[in-house]
Amino acid sequence: MKKILTMMGTRPEIIKLSPLIPLLRERFAHVLVHSGQHYSQEMDAVFFEDLGLPQPNYSLNVGSASHGEQTARMLSRLEPILLAEKPAAVLVQGDTNTTMAGGLGAAKLGIPVVHLEAGGRSFNRAMPEELNRVIVDHLSALLLAADEIAERNLRAEGLPSAAIRTIGSSAIDAVLRNREFAERSKVLETLDLDAGRYLALTLHRAENTTPDVLPGMVRALNELANDHVIAFPLHPRTAAALAQQGLSLSARIRTCEPLGYLDMLKLVANARALLTDSGGLQEEAAVLGTPGLIIRNETEWRYLVDAGVNVLVGNSYDDMITNVRTWLQPEPLARLRNAVAPIRPGASERAVAAIAELVGS
Prior knowledge:
- By secondary structure, the protein is an alpha/beta fold.
- It has helices at 11-17, 20-27, 41-51, 67-85, 97-108, 128-139, 148-156, 170-182, 187-190, 214-224, 236-244, 261-269, 280-288, 302-306, 317-327, 330-338, 347-359; strands at residues 3-8, 29-34, 58-59, 89-93, 113-118, 142-145, 164-166, 198-202, 229-233, 253-256, 273-276, 292-294, 310-312.
- It has 2 domains: 3-168 and 346-359, Glycogen Phosphorylase B (Rossmann fold, 3-Layer(aba) Sandwich), CATH 3.40.50; 184-338, Glycogen Phosphorylase B (Rossmann fold, 3-Layer(aba) Sandwich), CATH 3.40.50.2000.
- It contains 17 helices and 13 strands.
């Protein structure tokens, strides 16, 4: 039986790989490595519990650090594992430092790299995530693209057609698999929220937490909170930035610790709309039928914007106030809610079949 090693380390990776892991365990000798990029109980362990996933075979425990130091720690701690396990391929997902380290570490040892969610592009090279995804795509032997836009991006960069498989998104499989379990969540009661009468908010990307951007976003959110209750699970990066920059949130913004996956599904599913800079939540909201207002100037999930399911509202004070208020009006909001999301289940099965073809299993 061929051996496949999967490396993960953040919430989106755990969620998007969760439908694949049981399939990989059935088909291969599967080794799971957790980098520790998200290192608190709230940010990672709870997702393993929620999703019924096996504990990792290895934990690198790299913790928080600068991009360079964190990636270097991962590389130095991963290499002995790769040398000992000798996998037929290494699977990574997305665009994190964990993705970069897993792909680079494997490629340097001549181990084929499989990149799940290949070809996503924001075309903003100031984003660390954009650099990670581009580099890993160019290291990979198998490029698992979510949609035709991602496939075109890969071809435009000269990557070989024979390495590309357009399979859909495993995030869709994860939501479809777990939304029934999410109904049991008591998060609305905990946060004293009424279904359909609040906005769900997530904000964590590096470019949105800088001193030249975050104050304007907070000002806009505080003004929007005059008209809407906002539920805001607070990412550690954002909490630290708010404190360092001396920024205060309106009392109508109900903050809480980071939520488990099932709690987050319940929160998003029952929101009037989602305000987010997350990549994964854009797809999750589309599956759940919740309008997505993307507080960024670009998105890797352009197909959802093109389908009229999500909309880019920007991350400046002026853009957010104007665009969010416009899209939360009844008629525009109804257009978003009634748009048909181009959902394609079964990406996980297609991914595992492509990996089996790659390694000859």
